[in-house]
Fold this protein.
Amino acid sequence: MKIVSVINIKGGVGKTTLTSNLGAYAASQGKRVLMIDLDPQTQLTFSFMTPEYWRDKYKDSKTLKNYFDTIITGSDEIISLSDLVIHLNPGNILTFSSGTLDLISSHLGLIDIDVKLAGLINVQNSTMYSASFLKTHSYLTHSLEEIENDYDIVLIDCPPTFNTTVKNAILASDYYIVPAKLDYLSTLGIEELKQNIDIFTDEYHNHRDNLKDLRYLPVFPAMLGVVPMMAEIRKGDEPVFLQALKI
Ligand SMILES: Nc1ncnc2c1ncn2[C@@H]1O[C@H](COP(=O)(O)OP(=O)(O)OP(=O)(O)O)[C@@H](O)[C@H]1O
Ligand SMILES: [Mg+2]
């Protein structure tokens, strides 16, 4: 199972669009795909069902909020991600494929969850800090390990921020992919994102060295690349598709 975060701190660059399309494409090619909607805006979820349908069937019992709630309330048993999976059945994509497309939906309440998760980090002394830092940022890593054999690919649609849930996604990921618009300021942000990920993973390794706890493995999320989104391919003065129409 390979885990890929689709991430960019900048909003509206096509993270959700890329996640849903990559997921659907991989499933159409026979892969067992799980998409995780980590964004409280819930837009990946609403790319596959109406808000009304989600409210009726899943809002109360099958979202990432249910998962993080069990963590925040200090429950002994954290809910398994497999209990939250929604099996999608986009017939037009999967008719000729043995692949599967699953989703774990999000919830607007994840905004509050993130604040509470960050509050679990205890800075009283260096040992407590290291222990709570590692634990708070590794929930997703450990929960995804439990479903390691169920999927070929996990795609995580991150919100446009660098918060505690996104940091969980980074530590859980083998790779990350950065959709981006190719204007000047957006391209500056890509380098900054990469630096932030490197600083965060270095911090994780320092706490790991400090604590010497074998439950926390070294992580090396690798950048798969930047995907230009909303780009128009031009030849001369005109978009390529327009030229094609004239032929
Ligand atoms: N290649 C594209 N061409 C045209 N429109 C696009 C393309 N990719 C995305 N869009 C549109 O741009 C808008 C923003 O895309 P999307 O929601 O995927 O971005 P996002 O990075 O996930 O946003 P957010 O940061 O709010 O989560 C959407 O309305 C989407 O339909
Ligand atoms: Mg999005």
Summary: The longest helix spans residues 184-211. The pocket of magnesium ion (ligand 2) is lined by residues 15-16, 39, 43, 157 (CB under 6 Å). The beta strands are 2-6, 32-37, 86-88, 100-104, 153-157, 175-180, 222-228, 234-235, 238-239.
